[in-house]
Amino acid sequence: MSATPSKNNRRAKAGTTEAAWVRYLLIGTALAFMALFLVLPLAAVFAEALRKGFDAYWAALQEPDALSAIQLTFLTALIAVPVNLVFGVAAAWCIAKYEFRGKSLLTTLVDLPFSVSPVVAGLIYVLMFGAQGWFGPWLQAHDIKIIFAVPGIVLATIFVTFPFIARELIPLMQAQGNDEEQAAIVLGATGWQTFWYVTLPNIKWGLLYGVILCNARAMGEFGAVSVVSGHIRGQTNTMPLHVEVLYNEYQSVGAFAVASLLALLALVTLVIKSVVEWRHERELKAAADLPPENFAAHHPAATAPKTA
């Protein structure tokens, strides 16, 4: 018996012609995969961290080396994310708004950290700034430490995280085009006014989303940081490196306690990301529901300041 018209209409709206049991099977498979490979390991981390009670868990986080690793992780993210924010906006603006020689090369270079192993990225900095590197003798002569010190960790983190913001903004800015910026300039707005009142409101959700991803990667980076850090306890160990050290020393409670803190930060990042996406979708829906005569009043280009 052929499907009824109502069933065909429901399938057409869903964009699929498969039977209901096929959809349920695919959904069940996806949920089972996520439960087995994501939820279960995450729950195991928290269970192992709290295996000896909350007092032991809290003591592991208050241990001096753990506090140093936590502070260094946040310090690295606090430096790397704003640097990548400036670079990402500048690179996206340049690639999306202008045509110039070498544009494809610049776009390729933006994607380079996605193609290069983080360990290789760390070795690059060792080759450049290590004791036997290109600039090593000059740095030693001026008593400047980059490798096996905080500057090397920050540089390695910046390298592996700088594509995230740019890659979120480039397609968004390309899709938006230049019409609104050109209209603002014709109305008398300066370059900075055009950026702050026209471009930035249009890219704010993509920018925030890129910052969230960049921050998550900066706090969880292991490979590149492991190469340039030197694993000096209490000085150059970030949280992921500290977890490795404790686990290798069979201090499972301490290792899983710090790992659970990283997992908790990841969950917070996921919640913030979901809220950002929800707010963005809500704003788009509200804008779509505005009547044409009221849309211009709510559009960023209409509020760009005019100069005499």
Give a structural overview.
There is one protein chain. The protein has 308 residues and is an all-alpha fold. It is 78% helix and 0% strand. It contains 16 helices and no strands. It has helices at residues 5-14, 20-49, 54-62, 64-97, 103-110, 112-115, 118-129, 136-141, 150-161, 163-176, 179-186, 191-220, 223-229, 239-248, 252-289, 292-298. The N and C termini lie far apart (73 Å). Mean pLDDT is 84; it is low at 300-308.
- Gyration radius (Cα, Å) is 25 Å
What is the 3D shape?
A: globular
Strand content: under 5%
According to DSSP, the number of beta strands is 0
Unreliable runs, pLDDT <50, ≥5 residues? 300-308
- Summarize the amount of helix as a percent range: over 70%
Task: Write the element-wise H/E pattern from the N-terminal end onward.
Answer: HHHHHHHHHHHHHHHH
Number of helices: 16
Q: Distance N terminus to C terminus? A: 73 Å
Structural class by sheet pairing and helices: mainly alpha
Q: Give a short account of the largest sheet.
A: none
Mean pLDDT equals: 84
